[in-house]
Amino acid sequence: MHALRNNFHNLGRRFGRFRLYQSHNKEMPKTAGIIVVGDEILKGQTKDINSHHMCQSLHELGVDVKQISVIRDDVDVIASETKKFSALYDIVLTSGGIGPTHDDVTIEGIAKAFEERVVPNPTLVELCKKYFGQGFKDTPKMKLACTPQSAELHFGVDKVKGERLQFPLISVKNVYIFPGIPVLLNRLFDNLKHLFTTDDHFFMEKLLVNAFETDIAPVLTACAKKFDGAGVQIGSYPDWFNNYYKVKVTVESANEDATKAALKELKDKLPQGCLLDSHKYCSDPVAQNGVEAFADIFETEDPILHHKIENSIEILNEALTMYSLDELCIGFNGGKDCTALLHLLYAAICRKYPQRNSKLQALYIQDEHPFEELEEFMKHSTNRYNLNVITMKGAMKAALDTLQSQQPYIKAVVMGTRCTDPYSKNLSAFTPTDGDWPYYMRISPILNWSYRDIWTFLRKLSLPYCVLYDRGYTSLGSRDKTQRNEKLRYTDNQNNVKYRPAHCLQNEDLERNGRL
Ligand SMILES: Cc1cc2nc3c(=O)[nH]c(=O)nc-3n(C[C@H](O)[C@H](O)[C@H](O)COP(=O)(O)OP(=O)(O)OC[C@H]3O[C@@H](n4cnc5c(N)ncnc54)[C@H](O)[C@@H]3O)c2cc1C
Ligand SMILES: [Co+2]
Ligand SMILES: [K+]
Ligand SMILES: [Mg+2]
């Protein structure tokens, strides 16, 4: 059945050029190809985000994007690629190369593809006259008013203002010519969506699987084969940094029943217990960070932690009354404790200052030999919590000295210290630094949290944490002085040495086992 449909569809495609003004083959979703034009992209000077935006939007509209091609600003290359794509796909979208300078030749290339001449377009000439003034015809701006002979213009209406957009989208046969500047492209695309809308809709389901791709590959292959005839596509996308699953498996087709059947098959055949319960996993916990929400989650299951959280929030609220955001920073080095703390502090700040536009300041005293994974996690956290990270290098005391002279307005540091940390037994929630240290108020809202509390909090809320904790590390310091915790070591049934994740450590007194 599938083969038959495909042949039918290919037949349609072979006569693509004659099909242009007919509606597309109803048997299959409408297809599209995207051509990104620009030397700067091939040189790595500009990152192509336009094709990504177009793919996302087209997919939502039910259009099946089949190919993206990135090519240079060259008339012949543009002409041959356009000709090829125009015959292969129902619609073609190009991005870039339509400016007034010599290096923008997309219009010429597309004209050449269809053996047309480039001519002044009366409507565009009028528009340019209004926009640039009479004299524009003798300037390079005239290029903006020229199109291939058979070009059509599509004027979008600005959804917000209700006005006609100043410049139209140009199309030639089934090729839609977009400008390369992302805001212009997006504006045109979003206001002209109706040109690309179809009756189709893709049905997508996803499974989050906590198993290695190599271990689930046979099941995926068998399922893909079984449902191929029904047009179901199964995708497998490993995520190296997620703490809760290793692979995202997608099941998708234009047929809802087929999608559901394939999903069920996968659920039945994948190893027991490796599927993440979508009700228990939150993919964006930072967006749902209401302070009350945390405490409530733990209220019945873990009443002791519930009270610890409430107590920590009280301390943070007090800190926010005593210090302005300019005077406060969090001591953040990517470790598990300050990761939990950061989430709490961020929530408290969002509640106290819902309209704020200043960032939360974070102090990062960078080790001489930091773990790469830790640095990676720092970067992600900076974006996730919109941090202003103040990075200091060198020994801690000296770094704090420098901080004091460079950022004299900072008065207090919120820290993820716990009583069980070295030299921390006698700390209280608000303790100034010791005599020979530069003067700061140290605020420690999670002093009485245990190792287990930290993990319960992080994992229950699906908070991201540094991936090293999933690979056998239970406490992180300098790379040359930190090892995996031997208590987490085991040998699997193929005799490979492996390490369990940090949250599995039973005896929490052994947390610092891997620190040299
Ligand atoms: C602002 C500040 C003030 C300090 N004042 C004193 C003091 O008065 N007397 C004293 O003896 N020691 C002080 N220290 C040192 C501290 O007691 C620990 O020795 C140090 O944090 C390492 O702790 P750890 O490895 O045991 O635990 P960690 O869990 O690594 O540290 C506990 C907390 O300290 C903060 N922190 C740790 N390392 C960094 C870093 N590299 N960059 C940013 N924040 C970090 C984090 O909030 C973290 O959760 C201070 C440290 C800082 C950051
Ligand atoms: Co079939
Ligand atoms: K893959
Ligand atoms: Mg710690």
Automatic annotation (TrEMBL):
Look up the EC number in the record and give it: 2.7.7.2
Give every MoaB/Mog domain span: 33-200
Example of a GO MF term: FMN adenylyltransferase activity
User: Which function does this protein serve?
Assistant: Catalyzes the adenylation of flavin mononucleotide (FMN) to form flavin adenine dinucleotide (FAD) coenzyme.
Q: Does the record's keyword annotation contain Coiled coil?
A: no
Q: Which family does it belong to?
A: In the C-terminal section; belongs to the PAPS reductase family. FAD1 subfamily. In the N-terminal section; belongs to the MoaB/Mog family.
Q: Please state what the protein is called.
A: FAD synthase
Which SUPFAM superfamilies does the UniProt entry name for this protein? Adenine nucleotide alpha hydrolases-like (SSF52402), Molybdenum cofactor biosynthesis proteins (SSF53218)
Pathway given for this chain reads:
Cofactor biosynthesis; FAD biosynthesis; FAD from FMN: step 1/1
> Per the entry, which co-factors are needed?
Mg(2+)
* Any one of the GO BP annotations: FAD biosynthetic process
The gene coding this protein: Flad1
**Keywords annotated in UniProt:** ATP-binding, Cytoplasm, FAD, Flavoprotein, FMN, Nucleotide-binding, Nucleotidyltransferase, Transferase
Read off the Pfam families from this record.
FLAD1_M, MoCF_biosynth, PAPS_reduct
Give the subcellular location.
Cytoplasm
* Gene Ontology CC entries for this record: cytoplasm
